[in-house]
Amino acid sequence: MNIRKTILLGLLATGIMTAAVYTGAGAKVENAYAATTGGHIVCIDPGHQAKGDSTKEPNGPGATVMKARVTGGTHGTTTGLYEYQLTLAVAEQLRKELTARGYTVYMTRTSHDVNISNMERAQYATSVGAEISVRLHANGANSASTSGALALAPSATNPYIAKLAPASQLLSSKVLSSYCAATGIANKGVQANDTMTGINWCTMPVTILEMGFMTNPSDDTNMANSAFQQKMAAGIADGIDAYFKN
Ligand SMILES: [Zn+2]
Question: 210 C-alpha vs ligand 1 centroid, how far in Å?
Fold first, then answer.
């Protein structure tokens, strides 16, 4: 390797180091994106990544139950789009929409080639001082006729973040109803879920929005469309506005 190459690689390494955030637990999380405008602070987590990681991590703080760091996600049976591609595309539009509305926005990732576990995504939201965490996912089902959106929130008996259950359920309800109003996607309701590592490690109100079913031709085709994604982002932003105005 010549000197020029060595210097270039050194600069690249420096860039990578300055883009990293080290959480209290010592896990390295990519500081993928931060747009500061001074308003409420929102962390967006585009679900999944190019490759899942079946290495285990605790399901919550102090948990003995261990779950895969991050799963591979589903894909569009009509469009062929992967869930990790869809979630990032919508997240990018949501970031633009929220920033335009005056929010300070952080994203757990802005590329596909990362390895950030669900626990680390929650810890990242804490490390940036996020007031809420909005996690974007899409669903898959055995039946192609299953369609619609739903949101997941911790229950009042969650062993880790029961105190945040009412606010998380409110956030979930506001985001889901605004999202469905903006997109016309059917509202399948807010469901209590205490098994999600990325919820259980959160220290702020959190929602998982399952934006639609990638195994349903109509949901899949709509969600893959860029103009439709703008409606999705505007709907989610409307829900976030409604949550903070509550
Ligand atoms: Zn998912």
Answer: 8
